[in-house]
Automatic annotation (TrEMBL):
Major localisation: membrane
Name of the protein: Elongation of very long chain fatty acids protein
Transmembrane parts of this sequence: 35-53, 65-84, 142-159, 165-186, 198-218, 238-257
Pfam families recorded: ELO
Organism (species): Culex pipiens
EC number: 2.3.1.199
Enzyme class per UniProt: transferase
GO cellular component, one term: endoplasmic reticulum membrane
Length: 314
Protein backbone atom coordinates (compact mmCIF):
# COMPACT_ATOMS: atom_id res chain seq x y z
CA UNK A 1 0.00 0.00 0.00
CA UNK A 2 1.34 3.43 -0.93
CA UNK A 3 1.62 5.18 2.46
CA UNK A 4 2.17 8.60 0.91
CA UNK A 5 -1.28 8.86 -0.57
CA UNK A 6 -3.24 6.85 1.99
CA UNK A 7 -4.15 7.77 5.56
CA UNK A 8 -2.50 6.05 8.49
CA UNK A 9 -5.24 3.60 9.49
CA UNK A 10 -5.07 2.47 13.10
CA UNK A 11 -6.27 -0.98 12.08
CA UNK A 12 -6.82 -2.80 8.80
CA UNK A 13 -8.97 -5.91 8.63
CA UNK A 14 -7.73 -8.96 6.77
CA UNK A 15 -10.61 -8.81 4.28
CA UNK A 16 -9.68 -5.20 3.52
CA UNK A 17 -6.00 -5.99 3.13
CA UNK A 18 -6.80 -8.83 0.73
CA UNK A 19 -8.86 -6.61 -1.58
CA UNK A 20 -7.61 -6.72 -5.19
CA UNK A 21 -9.22 -3.90 -7.12
CA UNK A 22 -8.24 -5.22 -10.57
CA UNK A 23 -10.38 -8.33 -10.13
CA UNK A 24 -13.45 -6.34 -9.15
CA UNK A 25 -13.06 -4.00 -12.10
CA UNK A 26 -12.80 -6.90 -14.55
CA UNK A 27 -15.97 -8.39 -13.09
CA UNK A 28 -17.84 -5.10 -13.28
CA UNK A 29 -16.77 -4.39 -16.86
CA UNK A 30 -18.16 -7.79 -17.86
CA UNK A 31 -21.36 -7.60 -15.85
CA UNK A 32 -22.42 -3.99 -15.25
CA UNK A 33 -25.01 -4.00 -18.06
CA UNK A 34 -27.04 -6.58 -16.14
CA UNK A 35 -28.11 -3.62 -14.04
CA UNK A 36 -30.70 -2.76 -16.69
CA UNK A 37 -32.32 -6.18 -16.23
CA UNK A 38 -32.27 -5.73 -12.45
CA UNK A 39 -33.98 -2.36 -12.77
CA UNK A 40 -36.59 -3.81 -15.12
CA UNK A 41 -37.34 -6.62 -12.67
CA UNK A 42 -37.45 -4.08 -9.84
CA UNK A 43 -40.04 -1.93 -11.64
CA UNK A 44 -42.17 -4.98 -12.48
CA UNK A 45 -42.04 -6.19 -8.87
CA UNK A 46 -42.93 -2.91 -7.19
CA UNK A 47 -45.73 -1.86 -9.53
CA UNK A 48 -46.98 -5.40 -9.95
CA UNK A 49 -46.79 -5.73 -6.18
CA UNK A 50 -48.86 -2.61 -5.68
CA UNK A 51 -51.51 -4.03 -7.97
CA UNK A 52 -51.37 -7.37 -6.12
CA UNK A 53 -51.74 -5.66 -2.72
CA UNK A 54 -54.49 -3.32 -3.81
CA UNK A 55 -57.35 -5.36 -2.34
CA UNK A 56 -55.37 -7.23 0.28
CA UNK A 57 -54.56 -6.30 3.88
CA UNK A 58 -51.18 -4.74 4.52
CA UNK A 59 -48.31 -6.59 6.18
CA UNK A 60 -46.92 -5.11 9.40
CA UNK A 61 -43.33 -6.47 9.14
CA UNK A 62 -42.20 -4.17 11.95
CA UNK A 63 -39.64 -6.57 13.39
CA UNK A 64 -38.17 -7.40 9.99
CA UNK A 65 -38.11 -3.72 9.09
CA UNK A 66 -36.21 -2.90 12.29
CA UNK A 67 -33.59 -5.54 11.48
CA UNK A 68 -33.34 -4.38 7.86
CA UNK A 69 -32.82 -0.72 8.73
CA UNK A 70 -30.45 -1.54 11.58
CA UNK A 71 -28.25 -3.61 9.28
CA UNK A 72 -28.17 -0.86 6.65
CA UNK A 73 -27.43 1.73 9.34
CA UNK A 74 -24.49 -0.27 10.68
CA UNK A 75 -23.19 -0.90 7.17
CA UNK A 76 -23.41 2.81 6.30
CA UNK A 77 -21.72 3.89 9.54
CA UNK A 78 -18.88 1.44 8.97
CA UNK A 79 -18.55 2.56 5.35
CA UNK A 80 -18.42 6.22 6.38
CA UNK A 81 -15.69 5.55 8.95
CA UNK A 82 -13.61 3.58 6.42
CA UNK A 83 -13.90 5.96 3.44
CA UNK A 84 -14.06 9.46 4.93
CA UNK A 85 -10.46 9.40 6.27
CA UNK A 86 -9.13 8.87 2.74
CA UNK A 87 -11.04 11.87 1.38
CA UNK A 88 -9.93 14.09 4.26
CA UNK A 89 -6.32 12.92 3.89
CA UNK A 90 -6.29 13.63 0.15
CA UNK A 91 -7.83 17.07 0.57
CA UNK A 92 -5.34 18.03 3.27
CA UNK A 93 -2.21 16.79 1.52
CA UNK A 94 -3.00 16.78 -2.19
CA UNK A 95 -5.84 19.22 -2.72
CA UNK A 96 -9.11 19.40 -4.62
CA UNK A 97 -7.68 18.40 -8.00
CA UNK A 98 -6.44 15.04 -6.70
CA UNK A 99 -9.75 14.36 -4.92
CA UNK A 100 -11.67 14.91 -8.16
CA UNK A 101 -9.27 13.54 -10.77
CA UNK A 102 -7.08 10.80 -9.27
CA UNK A 103 -8.71 7.45 -8.33
CA UNK A 104 -6.13 6.57 -5.69
CA UNK A 105 -8.97 5.73 -3.30
CA UNK A 106 -9.39 2.50 -5.28
CA UNK A 107 -6.01 1.90 -6.89
CA UNK A 108 -3.75 2.62 -3.89
CA UNK A 109 -5.96 2.33 -0.81
CA UNK A 110 -7.26 -1.16 -0.11
CA UNK A 111 -9.42 -0.01 2.80
CA UNK A 112 -11.23 2.68 0.86
CA UNK A 113 -11.22 0.49 -2.24
CA UNK A 114 -12.88 -2.40 -0.45
CA UNK A 115 -15.65 -0.20 0.95
CA UNK A 116 -16.08 1.47 -2.43
CA UNK A 117 -16.67 -1.96 -3.94
CA UNK A 118 -19.20 -2.82 -1.22
CA UNK A 119 -20.90 0.53 -1.74
CA UNK A 120 -21.43 -0.17 -5.42
CA UNK A 121 -22.74 -3.68 -4.77
CA UNK A 122 -25.00 -2.50 -1.94
CA UNK A 123 -27.15 -0.45 -4.30
CA UNK A 124 -28.70 -3.69 -5.55
CA UNK A 125 -30.00 -5.08 -2.22
CA UNK A 126 -31.06 -1.57 -1.19
CA UNK A 127 -33.87 -1.96 -3.70
CA UNK A 128 -35.46 -4.06 -0.97
CA UNK A 129 -36.51 -0.83 0.74
CA UNK A 130 -39.28 -0.48 -1.80
CA UNK A 131 -40.53 -4.01 -1.20
CA UNK A 132 -41.32 -3.01 2.38
CA UNK A 133 -43.22 0.04 1.13
CA UNK A 134 -45.28 -2.10 -1.24
CA UNK A 135 -46.06 -4.86 1.25
CA UNK A 136 -46.92 -2.37 3.99
CA UNK A 137 -49.04 -0.37 1.52
CA UNK A 138 -47.22 2.90 2.16
CA UNK A 139 -47.22 5.77 -0.36
CA UNK A 140 -44.66 5.13 -3.11
CA UNK A 141 -43.59 8.42 -4.62
CA UNK A 142 -41.63 9.00 -7.83
CA UNK A 143 -38.58 10.35 -6.01
CA UNK A 144 -38.11 7.10 -4.13
CA UNK A 145 -37.95 4.60 -7.00
CA UNK A 146 -36.32 7.04 -9.44
CA UNK A 147 -33.53 7.67 -6.94
CA UNK A 148 -33.02 3.94 -6.41
CA UNK A 149 -32.66 2.91 -10.03
CA UNK A 150 -30.55 5.86 -11.16
CA UNK A 151 -28.06 5.52 -8.29
CA UNK A 152 -27.75 1.80 -9.01
CA UNK A 153 -27.13 2.30 -12.73
CA UNK A 154 -24.73 5.21 -12.27
CA UNK A 155 -22.72 3.48 -9.53
CA UNK A 156 -22.14 0.33 -11.54
CA UNK A 157 -21.29 2.25 -14.69
CA UNK A 158 -18.86 4.56 -12.86
CA UNK A 159 -17.00 1.66 -11.29
CA UNK A 160 -16.07 0.37 -14.74
CA UNK A 161 -14.28 3.69 -15.33
CA UNK A 162 -12.85 4.14 -11.82
CA UNK A 163 -14.42 7.60 -11.83
CA UNK A 164 -12.19 9.63 -9.51
CA UNK A 165 -14.86 12.07 -8.36
CA UNK A 166 -16.88 9.12 -7.04
CA UNK A 167 -14.88 9.26 -3.78
CA UNK A 168 -16.91 12.39 -2.93
CA UNK A 169 -20.23 10.79 -3.81
CA UNK A 170 -19.48 7.62 -1.86
CA UNK A 171 -18.43 9.38 1.34
CA UNK A 172 -21.42 11.72 1.23
CA UNK A 173 -23.85 8.87 0.61
CA UNK A 174 -22.42 6.73 3.39
CA UNK A 175 -22.64 9.64 5.85
CA UNK A 176 -26.20 10.62 4.96
CA UNK A 177 -27.37 7.00 5.00
CA UNK A 178 -25.79 6.53 8.42
CA UNK A 179 -28.17 9.11 9.85
CA UNK A 180 -31.13 8.16 7.67
CA UNK A 181 -31.17 4.42 8.31
CA UNK A 182 -30.51 4.95 12.01
CA UNK A 183 -33.58 7.18 12.09
CA UNK A 184 -35.71 4.56 10.35
CA UNK A 185 -34.43 1.83 12.63
CA UNK A 186 -35.50 3.87 15.64
CA UNK A 187 -38.92 4.47 14.07
CA UNK A 188 -39.37 0.76 13.44
CA UNK A 189 -38.45 0.09 17.07
CA UNK A 190 -41.23 2.45 18.21
CA UNK A 191 -38.91 5.26 19.29
CA UNK A 192 -40.10 8.75 18.43
CA UNK A 193 -37.22 11.00 17.31
CA UNK A 194 -38.19 14.68 17.03
CA UNK A 195 -39.48 15.98 13.73
CA UNK A 196 -36.34 18.09 13.41
CA UNK A 197 -34.36 14.90 12.73
CA UNK A 198 -36.47 14.14 9.67
CA UNK A 199 -36.00 17.72 8.54
CA UNK A 200 -32.24 17.43 9.12
CA UNK A 201 -32.05 14.31 6.95
CA UNK A 202 -33.79 16.02 4.04
CA UNK A 203 -31.49 19.03 4.48
CA UNK A 204 -28.45 16.74 4.37
CA UNK A 205 -29.79 15.15 1.21
CA UNK A 206 -30.23 18.57 -0.41
CA UNK A 207 -26.69 19.54 0.62
CA UNK A 208 -25.42 16.30 -0.89
CA UNK A 209 -27.01 17.21 -4.22
CA UNK A 210 -25.52 20.72 -4.21
CA UNK A 211 -22.03 19.38 -3.47
CA UNK A 212 -22.49 16.69 -6.13
CA UNK A 213 -23.28 19.32 -8.77
CA UNK A 214 -20.30 21.43 -7.63
CA UNK A 215 -17.92 18.46 -7.88
CA UNK A 216 -19.06 17.78 -11.43
CA UNK A 217 -18.56 21.42 -12.40
CA UNK A 218 -15.02 21.29 -10.97
CA UNK A 219 -14.40 18.00 -12.75
CA UNK A 220 -15.44 19.54 -16.06
CA UNK A 221 -13.09 22.47 -15.48
CA UNK A 222 -10.17 20.22 -14.55
CA UNK A 223 -10.83 18.06 -17.60
CA UNK A 224 -10.62 21.11 -19.85
CA UNK A 225 -7.47 22.55 -18.26
CA UNK A 226 -5.51 19.41 -17.32
CA UNK A 227 -6.64 17.18 -20.16
CA UNK A 228 -8.15 13.72 -20.24
CA UNK A 229 -4.86 12.07 -19.45
CA UNK A 230 -4.59 13.88 -16.11
CA UNK A 231 -8.19 13.69 -14.88
CA UNK A 232 -9.76 10.24 -14.64
CA UNK A 233 -13.36 11.07 -15.46
CA UNK A 234 -15.13 10.97 -18.80
CA UNK A 235 -17.24 13.70 -20.34
CA UNK A 236 -20.14 11.25 -20.54
CA UNK A 237 -19.86 10.49 -16.84
CA UNK A 238 -19.91 14.19 -15.96
CA UNK A 239 -23.02 14.75 -18.07
CA UNK A 240 -24.82 11.80 -16.53
CA UNK A 241 -23.78 12.70 -13.02
CA UNK A 242 -24.71 16.37 -13.13
CA UNK A 243 -28.06 15.56 -14.75
CA UNK A 244 -28.71 13.03 -12.02
CA UNK A 245 -27.68 15.29 -9.14
CA UNK A 246 -29.55 18.29 -10.50
CA UNK A 247 -32.74 16.26 -10.95
CA UNK A 248 -32.35 14.99 -7.38
CA UNK A 249 -31.94 18.55 -6.14
CA UNK A 250 -35.12 19.71 -7.89
CA UNK A 251 -37.13 16.75 -6.57
CA UNK A 252 -35.79 17.00 -3.01
CA UNK A 253 -36.27 20.79 -2.96
CA UNK A 254 -39.88 20.38 -4.06
CA UNK A 255 -40.31 17.66 -1.46
CA UNK A 256 -38.77 19.85 1.26
CA UNK A 257 -41.00 22.79 0.39
CA UNK A 258 -44.21 20.75 0.35
CA UNK A 259 -43.30 19.04 3.61
CA UNK A 260 -41.96 21.89 5.73
CA UNK A 261 -42.56 25.27 4.12
CA UNK A 262 -45.88 25.18 2.28
CA UNK A 263 -48.98 26.78 3.76
CA UNK A 264 -50.64 23.43 4.41
CA UNK A 265 -47.51 22.09 6.09
CA UNK A 266 -47.25 25.10 8.40
CA UNK A 267 -50.93 25.17 9.29
CA UNK A 268 -51.15 21.43 9.75
CA UNK A 269 -54.23 20.98 7.57
CA UNK A 270 -53.19 17.68 6.08
CA UNK A 271 -50.92 14.68 6.34
CA UNK A 272 -47.69 15.23 4.43
CA UNK A 273 -44.77 12.98 3.63
CA UNK A 274 -41.45 13.65 5.30
CA UNK A 275 -38.08 12.15 4.65
CA UNK A 276 -37.46 10.00 1.63
CA UNK A 277 -34.01 9.00 0.52
CA UNK A 278 -31.89 6.90 -1.58
CA UNK A 279 -32.91 3.68 -0.05
CA UNK A 280 -35.37 4.85 2.54
CA UNK A 281 -38.84 4.21 3.77
CA UNK A 282 -41.45 6.91 3.63
CA UNK A 283 -42.64 8.46 6.86
CA UNK A 284 -45.40 10.97 7.42
CA UNK A 285 -45.85 13.93 9.70
CA UNK A 286 -49.15 14.15 11.52
CA UNK A 287 -50.18 17.50 12.92
CA UNK A 288 -52.36 17.43 15.99
CA UNK A 289 -55.14 19.88 16.73
CA UNK A 290 -52.68 21.99 18.69
CA UNK A 291 -50.53 22.26 15.55
CA UNK A 292 -47.64 20.54 17.31
CA UNK A 293 -45.95 18.20 14.80
CA UNK A 294 -45.41 14.59 15.75
CA UNK A 295 -43.40 12.28 13.52
CA UNK A 296 -45.07 8.93 13.12
CA UNK A 297 -44.45 5.93 10.93
CA UNK A 298 -46.57 5.71 7.84
CA UNK A 299 -47.58 2.27 8.97
CA UNK A 300 -49.26 3.77 12.02
CA UNK A 301 -50.81 6.79 10.37
CA UNK A 302 -54.55 7.20 10.65
CA UNK A 303 -54.69 8.06 6.99
CA UNK A 304 -53.24 4.74 5.93
CA UNK A 305 -55.59 2.87 8.22
CA UNK A 306 -58.54 4.74 6.80
CA UNK A 307 -57.44 3.96 3.28
CA UNK A 308 -57.18 0.27 4.16
CA UNK A 309 -60.70 0.29 5.63
CA UNK A 310 -61.99 1.95 2.50
CA UNK A 311 -60.36 -0.68 0.31
CA UNK A 312 -61.82 -3.49 2.38
CA UNK A 313 -65.26 -1.88 2.19
CA UNK A 314 -65.01 -1.88 -1.59
Amino acid sequence: MNIEITPNYSYIFDFENEFIHQDTRVWMVKNWTYVFYYCGIYMAVIFGGQHFMQNRPRFELRGLLAIWNSLLAMFSIMGAFRTAPELVHVLRHYGLFHSVCVPSFIEHDRVSGFWTWLFVLSKLPELGDTVFIVLRKQPLIFLHWYHHITVLMYSWFSYTEYTASARWFIVMNYCVHSVMYSYYALRALNFKPPRSIAMLITTLQLTQMVVGCAINIWAHGFLQTAGKGSCNISEMNIKLSIAMYFSYFVLFARFFYKTYLSTNARKGKRMVKTTVGGGSNVDQVQYTASSKPTVISASLSATTAAQNDKIKAQ
